[in-house]
Amino acid sequence: MPISHHLLDQIQKIDQQIINLLEQRVKYCQEAAEEDERALSPEYLMEFMEEWNAAAEEKGWNIGIMNRIGKGVNELCRSAGE
Fold this sequence. Notes:
Layout: H1 5-35, H2 42-59, H3 63-80
Helix pairs in contact: 1-3, 2-3
């Protein structure tokens, strides 16, 4: 049985929200890095990943997958400033 159009529409809306949120995050990361270059430091990444891991654990999600997503988000922020 194919996925309903309603569900596909909802998934697409959420995907667009994620993209918009990533765009905002990249913008704020760039601004933070302009104020203080340590904003995207390895120390920050460790703190960021601890928060993501805690959220994954709380929700019962795969921590390895959340690590990859979190690292990807951080890398997106870092690479946008290049």
